[in-house]
Design brief:
alpha/beta; 7-stranded mixed sheet; single chain; 21 strands; FAD/NAD(P)-binding domain; 31% helix; 13 helices; globular
Length: 469
C-alpha cells in the first residue's frame, strides 16, 4: 500500500504498536496520515517480541509440566521437542496477526504505508530513499532493538538476542542468559522447560531488580527448583569461542570462574532506534542512550515532532506504546498538551508461575517520601493454589500509612497477569485496603488472594475458615 501525495497532516515514522495507534487516531480525527516503515508492519510485539515469545512459552510450559506435574494418580509423558515444527507454528501465527491486526487495519482505515527508511532532512522534512515529504506534524515511533553490552570477545564469539533465540532450530545443550529482566527470565525459562541446562547471570544482587525483593526470591526459587543455576552480583568479563562452545569468564563471589555453554543469550536491555532517522538534523534532542527526549505531552524539542513508544526509553511496554501513540497524534493534530497517568501502570513477566505488579514498590514509595505499610500473603494461604498443587508465590500490597490508600501490588502466581488487573483498578481509583478487603471475590480463584491480602492489614486470615467474610 503506497500513498501518492507528498504532504500530510501527520507523518508517522514506524509501523508498530505506537505508530499504528497514532495513525488510527489521526484517521479518526479526519487527518491525512501515512506511516513510514523500512521493515515489516507490526513492530516488535507481533514480529519478534510478545506474540512469538508467548507462542513458544505456552508449549514449552506444557512440555515441562508433562514431566513434572504434582498430581497423584496421573501418568503423563514428555517426549522432547521439535523446534522447527514449533517455529513454523509460531511463524504462521505471527503472519496471521500481522495481516489481520495491521495490514488489513490500515486498508480499512484508509491510511497508507510508505515503504523505505525515513531520515530527517531538516526540522520539517523527511526523505524516504531520496523522496522528500513534509507534514504539519510528525510522530516518531521507530521502536527499539536489542542492545549488546561491550563484553570483551562477545561479538567475535557470537551471541543470541531475545529475537534471534526464537529462530533456533536446534536446542542448545547449555545456555547462559546474561541479564534477568523480564525478557531474560522468560527466554531462559523457555529453554529450561524445553530441556536446556540454563545459567542466569545478573550484575545486581537479585534477579528482576526493578521489582520487589519478594518477587526476586520467589522466581529465583522457581528457577533453581527446576534445575537452573542463578548467579547474582556476577559480571561476565570475557567470552571466547572454543569450537562450537563459548567459554565465559565470570567474576562472582570474590573469585573468577569459567562457564562453558553452547550458546549465550544476551538480554541486557533495548536501545532506541534513532540513529537512522538523524534526529539532530531536525533539532530533536536525545539522551545518553539515544532515546528521544519528550515532555509529558510527548513533544520533542522540535515543536513539529512528537514521539511515542520504545523510542522514548523505558518503560518499554507495548500497551503503553499504543496509548502513547494515540496521545501523541491527538496532541500533535489538536495542539493539546494532554498527558498519561501512569500511577497504576501494570507490568507482567510471563514466567511460570507469572509475576505481575502495578503501582509503586515499597522502595519506590519510600524514595518518594511516602510513609507506607505493606503486607505479604503466601499462596499457601489461598485455597485455589492448594487445589492446583502449586502454592508457589505470594501477593504483596503496599499502602499509604495512615490512610490505607493502595499504592502498589505485586503477585507471583499462576494467572498473576490476570489478578493484577484488580489491583490496577484499586490504585487508579484510590481504594483503601479496607475497601479492597470488603469487595467481592469468588471462592477458589487466585484473584481471591488480593482480597485476602487486603484483609491481613487488620485480621489474621490464617484463623478464618474457607469463604469467611
Amino acid at each position: 500500500m503506497v500513498a501518492d501525495q507528498e504532504r500530510y497532516d501527520l507523518l508517522v515514522l514506524g509501523a508498530g504498536a505506537a505508530g499504528f495507534a497514532a495513525a488510527i487516531r489521526a484517521a479518526e480525527l479526519g487527518a491525512s496520515v501515512a506511516l513510514v516503515e523500512s521493515g515489516v508492519a507490526g513492530g516488535t510485539c507481533v514480529n519478534t517480541g510478545c506474540v512469538p515469545s508467548k507462542a513458544m512459552l505456552a508449549p514449552a510450559e506444557l512440555l515441562f509440566r508433562a514431566g513434572h506435574h504434582p498430581f497423584a494418580g496421573i501418568a503423563t509423558q514428555a517426549e522432547g521437542v521439535d523446534l522447527p515444527a514449533l517455529g513454523a507454528a509460531r511463524a504462521e501465527l505471527v503472519e496471521q496477526l500481522r495481516r489481520e491486526r495491521y495490514l488489513e487495519v490500515a486498508e480499512t482505515r484508509g491510511f497508507g504505508i510508505l515503504r523505505g527508511r525515513a531520515r530527517f532532512e531538516d526540522d520539517s522534512t523527511i526523505a524516504i530513499d531520496g523522496r522528500r515529504l513534509t507534514a504539519s506534524a510528525y510522530v516518531v515511533a521507530t521502536g527499539a532493538s536489542p542492545s549488546i553490552p561491550p563484553i570483551e570477545g562477545l561479538a567475535e564469539a557470537g551471541c543470541l538476542t531475545t529475537t534471534t533465540a526464537l529462530e533456533l532450530t536446534e536446542l542448545p545443550e547449555e545456555l547462559v542468559v546474561v541479564g534477568t529482566g523480564p525478557s531474560g527470565l522468560e527466554m531462559g525459562q523457555l529453554f529450561l522447560h524445553l530441556g536446556s541446562r540454563v545459567t542466569f547471570i545478573e550484575t545486581q544482587p537479585w534477579i528482576l531488580p526493578a521489582e520487589e525483593p519478594e518477587t526476586s526470591a520467589a522466581l529465583q526459587g522457581v528457577l533453581e527448583d527446576s534445575g537452573a543455576t542463578v548467579l547474582t552480583s556476577a559480571q561476565v568479563t570475557r567470552v571466547a569461542r572454543d569450537g562450537a562452545r563459548r567459554m565465559l569468564t565470570v567474576v562472582h563471589a570474590g573469585g573468577e570462574r569459567t562457564i562453558a555453554a553452547g550458546a549465550v543469550l544476551v538480554a541486557t536491555g533495548r536501545r532506541p532506534n534513532t540513529e537512522d532517522i538523524d534526529p539532530a538534523r531536525a533539532g530533536i534532542a536525545v539522551d545518553a542512550v539515544g532515546a528521544l527526549r519528550v515532555d509529558g505531552a510527548l513533544r520533542t524539542t522540535n515543536p513539529r515532532v512528537w514521539a511515542a513508544g520504545d523510542v522514548t526509553g523505558p518503560p518499554q511496554l507495548v500497551y503503553l506504546a499504543a496509548r502513547e501513540g494515540a496521545l501523541a497524534a491527538s496532541n500533535a493534530l489538536l495542539r493539546r498538551t494532554d498527558t498519561l497517568d501512569l500511577r497504576a501502570l501494570p507490568r507482567v513477566v510471563f514466567t511460570s508461575p507469572a509475576a505481575a505488579a502495578a503501582g509503586l514498590t515499597t522502595a519506590q514509595a519510600e524514595e518518594q517520601g511516602i510513609r507506607c505499610d505493606s503486607r505479604v500473603l503466601p499462596m499457601s494461604a489461598v485455597a485455589r493454589p492448594l487445589v492446583d498443587r502449586d502454592a508457589r508465590g505470594f501477593v504483596k500490597i503496599v499502602a499509604e500509612a495512615g490512610t490505607g490508600r493502595v499504592l502498589g501490588a505485586s503477585v507471583v502466581a499462576a494467572g498473576a497477569g490476570e489478578v493484577i488487573q484488580a489491583a490496577v483498578y484499586a490504585i487508579q481509583f484510590g481504594l483503601t485496603t479496607a475497601q479492597l478487603a470488603e469487595t467481592w471475590a469468588p471462592y477458589l480463584t487466585v484473584a481471591e488472594a488480593l482480597r485476602l491480602t487486603a484483609q491481613t492489614f487488620t485480621r489474621d486470615v490464617g484463623t478464618l475458615s474457607c469463604c469467611a467474610a
